Amino acid sequence: MKRILVIGSAGQIGSELTLEIRKIWGNENVIASDVCSNPSQKLQESGPYESLNILDRPRMEEIVRHYAIDGIVNLAAILSANGEKNPLKAWDVNMNGLINVLECAREHKMSQVLTPSSIAAFGPGTPLNNTPQETVLRPTTMYGVTKVAGELLGNYYVQKFGLDVRGLRYPGIISNETLPGGGTTDYAVAIYYDAVKYGKYTCFVREDTMLPMMYMPDCLKATLDLMQADFSKLKHHGDFNVAAMSFTVKEQADSIRKYIPGFEVTYEPDYRQAIADSWPRSIDDSAAREEWGWKPAYDLDAMTQDMLKVLKAKHAKGLI
Questions:
Q1: Between residues 271 and 182, the one the model is more confident about
Q2: Which of 49, 67, 143, 187 is catalytic?
Q3: Is 143 a catalytic residue?
Q4: Are residues 153 and 164 both part of a single domain?
Q5: Which structural domain, as residue segments, surrounds residue 67?
Q6: What is the value of pTM for the model shown?
Q7: pLDDT in tens, 226-243
């Protein structure tokens, strides 16, 4: 790829992934875009930024032609918890937006489309422990439904049109840069922020809730590794399982207490508990390891140490 358009670049993953893509492909060759009218200073100053609603196909075409785009990273999505509040909007953004991306890429004969999936694609009937690559996909959220459909669409465009479409089933992503945006795994990020700011946290799922998680540096590495993998060696395309660690909320709280003694957590489960209960506890990502060499670097304690170090420094400066 020579010129890449990142859609959804102001979100939790996009705000960091865009900068990493720019390090590899060059600042001027990576065009950031989002519906956000006021993205981070880093995004605006490090390279081109364009306002784009993924549902606005003419505007997408305009940007693609202007910059001679030959690859798209699609991160635009309405996430699980917000999607349950407005399921029709989730369908519109997640599915019709994806169709716009795929059709634009097909018509312009682009080199690659990367569009992530999620563990939300799983649901009742899926093995909860060591969830396999090939398994039952019966999600209980609109977000999950769109992710399953998105995986199928991506694979269809590979088979039907020969378009290079790739995707990863992201677990919960934990970042010290950008707060999450309405997902079921948000608690795993918020717990660190509240530990540093208040010394206590009220969690919206039970203490025994276990979900697959990944620290942002590993998320960025997985995405970049897949983007640069040899397409001819991929047996899968739009639906790679990727994993790094799994832990309960209690285990996460205990990890924090090693560095913030006296940290307190109370539990007030809400509607997101049912969503969490429908998702895997751990993931088998052997296909990603075998096909493009995936390997994570962080475990729970290493992530906790780094998260708290960064957030404490930010708190001392009044940034959180």
A1: 271
A2: 143
A3: yes
A4: yes
A5: 4-171+215-241
A6: 0.91
A7: 999 999 999 999 999 999
